[in-house]
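My current task is to audit a protein record that another person submitted. Alongside the sequence sits a line of tokens, each denoting a local backbone shape. Please read both lines and tell me whether the tokens look consistent with the sequence. Do not assume that whoever made the record got everything right. Thanks in advance; the entry in question is below.
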Amino acid sequence: MTTLDQPKTQARQPELRTALPGPKTAAIMGRDAQHLSTSYMRPYPFVPDHGEGVWLTDADGNTMLDFFAGIAVSTTGHAHPHVVRAVQEQVGKFAHVCLTDYPQEITTSLAERLVKHIERPLPDGGHEKWRVFFGNSGAEAVEAAVKLARNHTGRSHIISTMGSFHGRTYGAITLTGSKTKYKRGFGPLLPAVSHVPYPNPFRPLPGSTPETCGQAVLDQIEALFVGVIPADEVAAIIVEPMQGEGGYIVPPADFLPGLRALCDRHGIMLIFDEVQAGMGRTGKMFSFQNFGDVQPDMVTVAKGIASGLPISALLARESVMTWPVGSHGSTFGGNPVSAAAAHATLDLLEGVVTHPGCGASLMENAADVGAYLLAELRAMQAEFPFLGDVRGQGLFIGLEFVKPDGSPDGRLRDAASMAMFERGLLNLDCGEAVIRVSPPLILTREEAQTGLELMRGALRSLA
């Protein structure tokens, strides 16, 4: 095990040197608006120039505390020295060959490391074996999973959930159930896709409770098989074990095991989309591992796998990954430079290399600092009644804003998000009225306390 050098001990605070945006940032944003796609969202007037750890500095020298990590991507923070060295070393060797045509040690060993976190002994004394397909993004991993499920089962139908986000390519946006803006004007989309609710204990389905809302969703799926979709035509059910874009929702404990049992009864592939909640964010390598002995047939991962470099992986049981040679591939998937960053990220997640002040591994740190943040944020609910729900696991935390009648308050959420930004805290919304807390996994308790102070000040300004 290697321990990195100790960081500065003085507590760091955001440093706002100009109004937001400053003149350089405003100028770049003006150019951006003239030349880049009109589809890009620009929720905050911020143009990053450089970063260090959990801090980002814009073009005008304004330094912000990062509590969203590029949508849960920057696992090891910004410019982590261990990741930077790994990338530099690999670039000096070769940057591309094409994994579809030529095997490479760096991606082979990366696959070996990933499957070790999911393979397990079998009751007969044997060992379950998994394989990996590498792509570039979460959407590409999801597309691959759908293709593989249809090819392996010979069935066509896919079931997804409301509130889900699986990507913006054609198949992925068809599966996505979080916002209609992703689909408006782009039809027709992928055929043979249905959606069911996602179990939200804070807002259980009518007739259910926080404890029974998972079973209520399972009952709805079974009802589909009675009158809408023949179960033997369903290839797969894809679900986020902890839902991201839909509101950072943690389902009841019995939902995923119940879903596994349902799929087993009907011969359906179970796909867990771990793109946002996976790679150590919840204190486990994959978020589904917080729910006991449940095991999927496929897992999609991306975002946090390589600390900001583009790579994704579809992990599947060897008995499932049966598509023939040449039936699927990717020119850039499994890029060796991205694979080097992924190895370095795993070093820190697994504790092969430790980050100062972050315990034995970044997974351990995510569990520890996340529990601290959850406790402190829940304590804030007494002061701020509009914080209707504080939920999550590890550094995967959602704050839901509500009106006095308990309904979602998106306008107040937006005001809170901007107030936090104006105090030097980078954040991002999700769901109808939720702010997600998804900082880099190197966040220390001291830095978490700084973030809590900024959030408290922003919420008091609203109250």
About this structure: The CA atoms of residues 96 and 335 lie 6 Å apart.
